[in-house]
């Protein structure tokens, strides 16, 4: 099938471009902090999250500390990022869950944590537990559509389709590389198609020329 042939070229090209791509959220090697940081990253850049989390960790070093935090104080720490009031409530509840139950290692259990959806759960299973994971953020969704790897706008369906196409051992790193490519080249508003090594495989680009 066309997609199965193309995905091999895409995987190889991205590997050459971004051999050392990795998760951009900083969590000091503490798994629970990655959960909190990923919740905060919704509709917010990783860079913005990385600016506020050092202050958050200093105020609340453990999940138990954060679980007992006053919501207005947490809101004050997060005020520079989008949806900070809602996120403050979510991360306090998420911290309480993890302080009591620990950190689950499966998608089905991770999504029971307040504020955690499949995107966050996939970030954690891939980054922390080394399991095959497809994280469908805005970059992965956009490029999967542009490259014709999916026709769906639904992140859950995109995840399923990409899992079928990409070998398990490459799923997590594929997402890191595609996210990096989305930030540097295949941008939402002004994609740099003239320098993109995937342009010959891109139905979206072909459609723009018609």
Description:
Helix 1 (2-17) packs across helix 11 (168-184), helix 2 (31-40) runs antiparallel to helix 6 and helix 2 runs antiparallel to helix 8 (118-127). This protein has helices at 2-17, 31-40, 46-59, 63-67, 71-78, 84-101, 107-110, 118-127, 138-146, 155-165, 168-184, 203-208. Helix content is 61%, strand content 0%. It folds into 2 domains: 2-21 and 134-208, Endonuclease Iii, domain 2, CATH 1.10.1670; 31-127, Hypothetical protein, domain 2 (Endonuclease III, domain 1, Orthogonal Bundle). It has 12 helices and no strands. It starts with a helix and ends with a helix. The protein is elongated, with a radius of gyration of 18 Å. It is mainly alpha-helical.
Beta fraction: under 5%
CATH superfamily of the largest domain: Hypothetical protein, domain 2
Based on CA atoms alone, the radius of gyration comes out at 18 Å
Number of strands: 0
Q: Which spans have pLDDT < 50 for at least 5 consecutive residues?
A: none
First-last Cα distance: 25 Å
If helices are DSSP runs of H or I spanning 4 or more residues, what is the number of helices?
12
The fold-level CATH name of the largest domain is Endonuclease III, domain 1
Please tell me the total number of domains.
2
Structural class: mainly alpha
Roughly what is the average pLDDT, rounded to an integer? Answer: 96
The percent range for helix content is 55-70%
What order do the helices and strands follow? HHHHHHHHHHHH
* Assigned CATH class of the largest domain: Mainly Alpha
CATH architecture of the largest domain: Orthogonal Bundle
Name the shape in a single word. elongated
